[in-house]
Write a structure and sequence with these properties.
- This protein is an alpha+beta fold.
- Helix content is 53%, strand content 22%.
- The protein has one domain.
- It has 3 helices and 3 strands; from the N terminus they run ααββαβ.
- This is TadE-like domain-containing protein.
- Pfam families: TadE.
- Keywords: Membrane, Transmembrane, Transmembrane helix.
- InterPro entries: Rv3655c/TadE, TadE-like_dom.
Amino acid sequence: MTVRAERGSIAAEFAVVLPAVLLVLVLCVGAASVSLQRIEVQSAASAASRILARGDGLGAATGAVGRLAPGARLAAARDGDFVCATVASTARFVAARTAGVRLTGRACALSGDEVS
């Protein structure tokens, strides 16, 4: 084969490989985004359980969840001497949201009004 016959082959190979490389890159960035959002949800659950354990009320806990994990929902329950908060959210990354990925964080704190 001559150099003339191979002319343009690099551009053709690049055009074939580029979409696959971009797809992998976008999925990696999306996975990192979902991981960070999972940390936000868990942090919001921890903060909400501490707020509820202090007796500050559901409104204060809901406000903290709204600041730490925008769009997340809070559910609170008592478990013996503990106050537990569960924060749930859907993934913000489009591909994960389309797949129905839900993120949940749960945390419990010892209730301040039960301790003598």
